[in-house]
Known about the structure:
The chain is of the alpha+beta class. Helices cover 27% and strands 25% of the residues. Strands 3-2-1-4-5-8-7-6 form an eight-stranded mixed β-sheet, with helices on both faces. The chain binds two DNA strands through strand 1 and helix 3.
Amino acid sequence: MPHIDARADEDDLWPTDAEGAERVQQRLAERVRVETLPAAQVSLVAGVDVSYAADDSALVAAVTVLDTASLRLVEAQVEVARPRFPYVPGLLAFREVPPLLKALERLECEPDVYLCDGFGLAHPRRFGLACHLGVLLERPTLGVAKSAFVGRATDPGAERGAATDLVDDGEVIGRVLRTRTGVKPVYVSTGHRVDLAGACDLVLRLCPRYRLPEPIRHADQLSRARLAER
DNA sequence: GCGACAG
DNA sequence: ATCTTGTCGC
């Protein structure tokens, strides 16, 4: 059960317009902290994802929690709702975080880290979905995106584990990581209270067989299945 | 000004 | 994101 940071409740966290949303990002971005996440302390890993109906009339936000060592499913929760914010590149969190928080509130266990489908610091204002969720939960988060957004990088080697820096404005904002030999790489970036190297190590550990981390795959399948049931 | 643009 | 099955390849 997540606890929303008291300070974050003071003002309007969910503006309806893009201008207000960007101001919220600039304000909350100051709270992001990059810290090391001891691998020994990660026993429960959560994956979050959101699926949408083709006509955008409904969405299903899902969270799945896996035991890091065995990769067995420990718990799963969903939130069915109607989209309240349009998809705008750079403002994805305003569309997905509200329903995700609802699903997370139903969780009985406490994940040690949350893997998000999207970016963290690798964002125009250095405050992507993973940072947003992490700051509101005040919990460790990281982002794993399937395609490029901001920054430049050279292609990592073809072997699993190969990685290159994602650079923007002279700063390393993430890593392009090959999780499967010969398969398109993923984009890993810090969300909150984790460091880039630790995030990449964890992501690689969670990808023993597929391109995407197991927690995210499970959340994706669950959200999609619940959407189809309607 | 024009195109690109996480999910 | 979503519309969509089978199929080629390791």
